[in-house]
Write a structure and sequence with these properties.
Largest sheet: 8 strands, mixed
Keywords: ATP-binding, Chaperone, Cytoplasm, Nucleotide-binding
Protein name: T-complex protein 1 subunit epsilon
Mean pLDDT: 86
Shape: elongated
Number of strands: 20
Family: Belongs to the TCP-1 chaperonin family.
CATH class of one domain: Alpha Beta
Strand content: 15-25%
Helix content: 40-55%
Number of helices: 15
Low-confidence stretches: 1-5, 17-24, 540-548
Subunit structure: Heterooligomeric complex of about 850 to 900 kDa that forms two stacked rings, 12 to 16 nm in diameter.
Structural class: alpha+beta
CATH topology of one domain: GroEL
Subcellular location: Cytoplasm
Radius of gyration: 31 Å
CATH architecture of one domain: 3-Layer(bba) Sandwich
Oligomer: single chain
Distance between the termini: 8 Å
CATH superfamily of one domain: GroEL
Bound molecules: adenosine-5'-diphosphate
Length: 548
């Protein structure tokens, strides 16, 4: 449609087209715009909500090129959805922020944000100005977080139980994931991984020290924590030993970590190397032999038991290494080399001449890990001296399961790390949300004017979390919510939540269903911020599909 386009010429005489209006782009203003944003957000949330909680459904995602992902992780589901709506994209962003800052609670944050938006829509339809709604929500969020903090329990006070709490919180996080059949094993992996690398004084956990590796094959229950580094490699010669332990009189296995190739430097001749006689060939061979021997001599003299090399080496070198009792690993990538160096307190050495005893890495064992009947092997550099590096090694029968298990474990690692950083917990199964909702509701009557509506709406948005958990577990949402509220009020506690797994009690403390306080707080803050942002946007150009 060129009716509102004018052909003009620039000063050089080149024609160009002025389009007076932005083609078929639709502009939406004010309330209409807001309503349509909220409806878009709602459609995204409706996909996510059925994934919430231990009885949430897994989603199967198929990418345009046919790759299949099975997941229950909100951030993952959203990131793979092809969305062309800007508001829906904001929800993706929201879930990503929660993921980046906290690592868990990515489904919950989207559920809460969209519940807030739903409530906002009702208020807009009642004629309340969006900015006033946003302000009211912000006040209510402050109050909710305050209540959350007051009711949180600091589990470090129960030092004896601290590890139990870490374990239970990891279980709560994993409970809704693919690994739930082997909950204890995975929760233990998460706790052991974090506690073995954590800095107890600084209450900090360096995630760089925790590697997540996966290998298709076996089953989830073959997954384990390895104290050290794993390489997708094997020894360079099949006759080299499969297990290397410290030599007699030594307390560790010494590793030479090399970035120089086992390859003789080219002979320094002025002219092109020209081999025409047998003698000349012999000479060259001898020269190479000499050089190899020299290199091996350097390695031996430094006291190395194992050679880790960034480069490959030919059969000749390989054979000499074998003869000289030097098991070797070749083609080790730069990043892996660095990992080994960190884990073994060794130095990466660029030239054979630079090798010396103090530059070698140390560990208690290097061995090839075999996988049942397959020819697959991996190399484990184990129990590195006082260096803290661990590898969570995930097995599973196919790539989709391994990938989802990795994501699940990542979430659990985050939960445990969060508790190490801040040991306050709140109770899960919607207990914390009910308690916040009750406290915000209590304030409703103290608010004047619009605030009343906003506070009530905010409380109702919080209520949707336990309601969805109930619904996903096959319980009646309204009945459950009513029960939780009356119990919390009657017993003056914030620990009553949804019994998703039918354990026969609503006491989340008894069930040990706990979430880190900082994760829950972040959900509230991020969800209300996002809501505020959307309520403030009132002029969006929606580009029509048929534009052009
Ligand atoms: P997210 O991606 O937001 O972490 P999940 O699907 O992992 O979402 O669900 C987390 C919610 O499920 C939290 O509210 C948590 O308290 C709740 N939850 C987890 N395990 C249990 C359980 N055993 N009983 C009741 N609620 C649980």
């Amino acid at each position: 449609d060129m009716s509102n386009a004018i052909v003009a010429q620039d000063e050089m005489g080149r024609p160009f087209i002025i389009v007076r209006d932005q083609g078929n782009k639709k502009r939406q203003h004010g309330l209409e715009a807001k309503k349509s944003h909220i409806l878009a957000a709602r459609s995204v949330a409706s996909i996510i909500r059925s994934s919430l909680g231990p009885r949430g459904l897994d989603k199967i995602l198929i990418s345009p090129d046919g790759e299949i992902t099975i997941t229950n992780d909100g951030a993952t589901i959203l990131s793979q959805m092809e969305l062309d709506n800007e508001i829906a994209k904001l929800l993706v962003q929201l879930s990503k922020s929660q993921d980046e800052e906290i690592g868990d609670g990515t489904t919950g944050v989207v559920v809460l944000a969209s519940a807030l938006l739903d409530q906002a829509l009702d208020l807009i339809e009642k004629g309340i100005h969006p900015i006033k709604i946003a302000n009211g929500f912000e006040e209510a969020a402050k109050l909710a977080v305050q209540e959350l903090e007051e009711k949180s329990d600091d589990v470090i006070k129960e030092q004896r139980l601290f590890k139990d709490y870490l374990f239970e919180a990891a279980k709560t996080s994993l409970g809704s994931k693919i690994v739930s059949k082997d909950l204890d094993r995975f929760a233990q992996i998460a706790v052991n991984a974090v506690t073995s690398v954590m800095d107890e004084d600084r209450k900090d956990v360096d995630f760089e020290l925790i590697k997540l590796e996966g290998r298709v094959g076996g089953s989830l229950k073959d997954s384990k924590l390895i104290n050290g580094v794993i390489l997708d490699k094997d020894f360079s010669h099949p006759q080299m030993p499969k297990v290397i332990l410290p030599r007699e009189g030594q307390d560790s296995v010494k590793l030479a970590i090399l970035t120089c190739p086992f390859e003789p430097p080219k002979p320094k001749t002025k002219h092109k190397l020209d081999i025409s006689t047998v003698e000349e060939y012999q000479k060259l061979q001898n020269y190479e032999q000499e050089k190899f021997k020299e290199m091996i001599e350097y390695v031996k003299k430094a006291g190395a038991d194992v050679v880790i090399c960034q480069w490959g080496f030919d059969d000749e070198a390989n054979h000499l290494l074998l003869q000289n009792d030097l098991p070797a690993v070749r083609w080790v990538g730069g990043q892996e080399l660095e990992q080994i160096a960190i884990a073994t307190h060794g130095r990466i050495v660029p030239r054979f001449q630079d090798l010396s005893a103090d530059k070698l890495g140390s560990c208690s064992k290097v061995y090839e890990m075999e996988f049942g009947t397959t020819k697959d092997r991996m190399l484990v550099v184990e129990k590195c001296q006082d260096a803290k590096t661990v590898t969570c090694f995930i097995r599973g029968s196919n790539k989709m399961i391994v990938d989802e298990a990795k994501r699940a474990l990542h979430d659990a690692l985050c939960v445990v790390r969060n508790l190490v950083k801040d040991s306050r917990v709140v109770y899960g199964g919607g207990a914390a949300e009910v308690s916040m909702s009750l406290s915000v509701s209590e304030e409703v009557d103290k608010q004047r004017g619009i605030g009343q509506y906003a506070f009530r709406a905010f409380a109702q948005a919080l209520d949707t979390v336990p309601m969805i958990l109930a619904e996903n577990s096959g319980l009646d949402p309204i009945e459950t919510l009513t029960l939780l509220k009356s119990k919390q009020l009657k017993e003056q506690t914030s620990k009553i939540g949804v019994d998703c797994l039918g354990k026969g009690t609503n006491d989340m403390r008894e069930l040990f269903v706990v979430d880190p306080f900082i994760g829950k707080r972040q959900q509230i803050l991020l969800a209300s911020q996002l809501c505020r942002m959307i309520l403030k946007i009132d002029n969006v150009i929606i580009s029509g599909k048929d534009e052009y």
